[in-house]
Amino acid sequence: MYFGSMSRLKPAALEEEEEALGVIWHNHELGQCHEEQIRTVLSQGISPDVFERLLSKDLARLSSGNVELSESGRTLAQDVTRRHRLAERLLVDLLDVGAGQIDEDACRWEHILSPEATRAICTLLGHPRHCPHGTPIPPGECCKQWLDQADPVITSLDKLLPGNSGKIVYLAMEDKPVIQKLLALGLTPGSLVTLKQSRPSIVVQTGETVIALEQELAQRISVKKVF
């Protein structure tokens, strides 16, 4: 039930529109952009008139039965998606919240993170490319410039110094056979790994197992530094 003042109706409506734009963005990633599909998804938990509001504000458009985002709608959708997925990474990587429990909190954070906070979180985490569920995080300017404002706590395995250790937080790859091979070797999220050498080849140790990895593969293994 709503107990706030009338002045809060506009922010609440804008949050609904941001959430709806994020839903449309994700559906486009899945190749599900038909109007009926979009309306069905938006009707589940969001105000029933939000789609019409997006159309009236020219944030979304209909084209041959499909829903498209206008330039301004695409910018907003990409931004809210980026904030949501970075919030998920922060909750999982630094706060150790289970991946199955993060969506509700991330939904709140996606509406309140400022551009400065979003950039700081991204830099702190080492500019992650995927959320904990494996979907891409839209890159920001900080990702393109790879700002050196802070030494990232989350980094790729190949960037550890020899002798340093890290806890694997996620494997940023889509090749299932490769992922299965890494898991079989003990390179699983949550496991501790130590970089033994970086040249001429990358050699790591997890438990009693010593493993040689290609550079490209090590770049896709993200670890949380152990200090």
Structure description:
With 227 residues, the chain is an alpha+beta fold. It has helices at 9-29, 35-42, 50-56, 71-93, 103-112, 115-124, 141-145, 176-184, 215-219, and strands at residues 60-63, 66-69, 154-156, 165-171, 192-197, 202-206, 209-213, 221-226. The chain has 3 domains: 6-69; 74-145, Winged helix-like DNA-binding domain superfamily/Winged helix DNA-binding domain (Arc Repressor Mutant, subunit A); 154-226, SH3 type barrels (Roll). 43% of the residues lie in helices and 18% in strands. The strands form 2 sheets. A 6-stranded antiparallel β-sheet has the order 3-8-4-5-6-7. A two-stranded antiparallel sheet has the order 1-2. α1 (9-29) packs across α3 (50-56) and α4 (71-93) packs across α5.
Beta strands, count: 8
Distance between the termini: 47 Å
Order of helices and strands: HHHEEHHHHEEHEEEHE
Largest sheet: 6 strands, antiparallel
At CATH level 2, the architecture of the largest domain is Roll
Strand adjacency order, main sheet: 3-8-4-5-6-7
Overall tally of structural domains: 3
Residue windows where pLDDT falls under 50 for at least 5 positions: 1-10
Broad shape: elongated
Rg from C-alpha positions? 20 Å
Summarize the structure.
The chain has 9 helices and 8 strands. The chain is an alpha+beta fold and 227 residues long. The strands form 2 sheets. A 6-stranded antiparallel sheet has the order 3-8-4-5-6-7.
Topology:
Elements (H helix, E strand, L loop, with lengths): L8 H21 L5 H8 L7 H7 L3 E4 L2 E4 L1 H23 L9 H10 L2 H10 L16 H5 L8 E3 L8 E7 L4 H9 L7 E6 L4 E5 L2 E5 L1 H5 L1 E6 L1
Antiparallel strand pairs: 1-2, 3-8, 4-5, 4-8, 5-6, 6-7
Helix pairs in contact: 1-3, 1-4, 4-5
